[in-house]
Amino acid sequence: MRGLTFHGNEDVRVDDVPDPRIERPTDAVVRVTLAGICGSDLHIYHAGAQFGFAPGGRLGHEFIGIVEEVGPEVAGLAPGDEVMASCCVCDGTCTYCAEGLQSSCASWSLFGWAPRVWQHGGAVEGGQSEFVRVPLAASTLHPIPESLRGEARRPTVLPLVDVMSTAWHGLVGAGVQPGDRVVVIGDGAVGLSAVHGAAAKDASAVICLGHHPDRLERATALGATAVVTSRDTEEIRAQVMELTGGEGAHAVIDTISGTASMEAAHACVRAGGAISCLGMDHFMGKTPAINWFDQFLRNIRITGGLVPGPHYFDELLGLVEAGRLDPAPMLTHTLPIDRAAEGYRMMEERREGVVKVAVAPGLAA
Amino acid sequence: MRGLTFHGNEDVRVDDVPDPRIERPTDAVVRVTLAGICGSDLHIYHAGAQFGFAPGGRLGHEFIGIVEEVGPEVAGLAPGDEVMASCCVCDGTCTYCAEGLQSSCASWSLFGWAPRVWQHGGAVEGGQSEFVRVPLAASTLHPIPESLRGEARRPTVLPLVDVMSTAWHGLVGAGVQPGDRVVVIGDGAVGLSAVHGAAAKDASAVICLGHHPDRLERATALGATAVVTSRDTEEIRAQVMELTGGEGAHAVIDTISGTASMEAAHACVRAGGAISCLGMDHFMGKTPAINWFDQFLRNIRITGGLVPGPHYFDELLGLVEAGRLDPAPMLTHTLPIDRAAEGYRMMEERREGVVKVAVAPGLAA
Fold it and tell me: How much is the pTM?
């Protein structure tokens, strides 16, 4: 089959790779219908060699598809079922899964980060390929409800797998309630998802900070009540204060989580509020910096983390079915599998009009 | 009257100072019966000059006493009432007070930090003195219930003003539930209070990390189920894992909040858990360091902050009345007002057997 593989930093290619097969009785093999390229995939693209990625590893932790084959111990799934996958493998039975923190499952591993040593459950290859092996399939896969099946709804469902659930996790962690004021830092796919999610949570103000006019336009379409484009902390503070009755935001969703974004986050957040850190720049050595004096004096909480997708899938699918969420507009481009490497470059270069690129293995090249 | 005043770094003295008087119709004057010396007072003692303290400023934000005089607009209080004071002045009516975050009150100021520019409500002098002026007295003072009045119960009530409520705030912020495992870093008064509070919250394990045998003995008497004395992170991790079934603590209450303590906190906390930062070492430029990779990957929340005392006073007084809390053992020494400066040195030098020193202006010199 064809699959996107890592060859070295800034070198990913679509190669002929072995077809995945059932290796354990709890495995399934899924035929991928749509797979996203995530901002965190760009970290691998940049510096995978430093992370321990060996050439030949396949990328992609965001995918939906159709069950092709199931092992003898996979309950509740059959070939032909349309499914979305958790980014992280989870067993559904450990203490953390029972608590809804599937991203800390005892059997955890992350699709497409196969070579990393912090895999507990054995390496799993990525989903930017025609087929993918899914361990512990009964808990790692989630059926797509009937009303959201089929090709037309895939751009709506795919973002729920990671970017939309990650943003939702940030909003939940920050305790966002109806009527709250929310600032979202960043206008990438997670940022737009946070904007969209905050609107779905009936935030009274949703302010998006970003620097790309085309993305900020999209943010407004997805629910932002205002946008701020300044890079100067004091200007950001002044504008956000004016937009929030002088008080600041109950929650700041920082999708970058670097030094500058955290400075802006402290400037925007109200006393007793929360900053959700969803960015992964610290993977690249750019460590966020908390203003500890502010954190202490004004009781600022720091939250956010790797999303336990399955904890939110039913809720998010329900909101989509109810017409209250539709993250499809952040998926700007869909390419056939053989052009997947081009998708990385489109996102990497932040080309105008590009937010998120997906790969559809069924699409003619 | 006599009052402890700041003369310069490492130079506090008890001087004759003007008697406080009602300055605004919402003021009260309180005759102090017992005033604590807080760990944060030692920060002023060390470096008050850098903080902007001018010679002559009076210290002390932890005090209880008897109402001496009230202004014409003070409802619900009369001379003779026994009261505890919030460390922070609060108006009881602003948005933050209504939410229970009185430490961010619009009229906020902090007793005994008078010279700081971040006073919103006008400077207030400290309570380590015979009398103290209390602004917005109706909301800043809290009546002591009848069963806890009188000299014998003062060592029980005084710690509720700050150290016990601060520790409680950390436990609440970390979301500690019955059955949870709690690690407390530090064996000072806030650390012992966190131990005692965790036990009152029916934690299944309360592990105190410290280095002073006499204080750790006290920790055990106050509810610690185990103590750890190592300074080595890996040793701490191993011991805490052994004490927590290999999983770690649901909550870590870090009463130091420095680089080493935060490293230990990350080593002790379980995935999805919280670290409450209650220390103020960052006031002294010792900035805590979050392990951001761990924070993200394991969903660790960072919480803690300046305590909104009045939000907890009724609950804590109720627990004392019910016999479930008695923080008196952490108050190891009570001195007459004229020996207050000696109290600072006793705490500063961490003399054996000294945890917390209080000043009783009514005590014969």
Answer: 0.96
